[in-house]
C-alpha cells in the first residue's frame, strides 16, 4: 500500500469524525436547543474506527490509545440508545426529526 492510500484513509477518518460536530450543530439549530442525534454516535464510531486503523498503521501509541478508548464510549452510547428504544425502526419511521439525546438543562 502506498503512502497516499494511507493518507486517504487518515483524511477519510478525520472527515467522518469531524462531520459528527456538523450533524450535532444542525440538529441543535433545528431543535433550538442542544441535542445529540444518533448519527453523531455512528459517525463517532465509524470515524474513530477508521482513525484507529490509521493510527495502528502509523504505530502511534498515543493516537491508538485515544481512538481505542473512544470506541468503547461510542459503542456504549449506541447500546444505551438501543436499549431505550431510540434506534428502533418503528421509532425512526414515525419521526420527522432524527432521534436525539437532549442535553441536561443548565442550572442558572
UniProtKB/TrEMBL annotation:
GO cellular component: membrane
InterPro entries, A to Z: Lipid_A_biosynth_N
Matches recorded under Gene3D superfamilies: 1.20.1280.290
Source taxon at top rank: Bacteria
GO MF, any single term: lipid-A-disaccharide synthase activity
Keywords noted in UniProt: Membrane, Transmembrane, Transmembrane helix
Keyword Repeat: no
Occurrences of domain Lipid A biosynthesis N-terminal (ranges): 9-80
Gene Ontology BP terms: lipid A biosynthetic process
TM segment ranges: 34-56
Name of protein: Lipid-A-disaccharide synthase N-terminal domain-containing protein
Organism, as annotated: Halomonas sp. RT37
Amino acid at each position: 500500500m502506498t503512502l497516499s492510500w494511507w493518507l486517504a484513509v487518515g483524511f477519510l477518518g478525520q472527515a467522518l469524525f469531524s462531520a459528527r460536530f456538523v450533524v450535532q450543530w444542525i440538529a441543535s439549530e433545528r431543535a433550538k436547543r442542544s441535542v445529540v442525534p444518533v448519527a453523531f454516535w455512528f459517525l463517532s464510531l465509524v470515524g474513530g474506527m477508521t482513525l484507529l486503523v490509521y493510527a495502528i498503521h502509523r504505530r502511534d501509541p498515543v493516537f491508538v490509545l485515544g481512538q481505542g478508548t473512544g470506541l468503547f464510549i461510542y459503542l456504549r452510547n449506541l447500546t444505551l440508545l438501543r436499549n431505550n428504544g431510540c434506534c428502533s425502526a418503528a421509532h425512526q419511521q414515525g419521526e420527522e426529526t432524527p432521534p436525539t439525546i437532549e442535553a441536561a438543562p443548565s442550572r442558572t
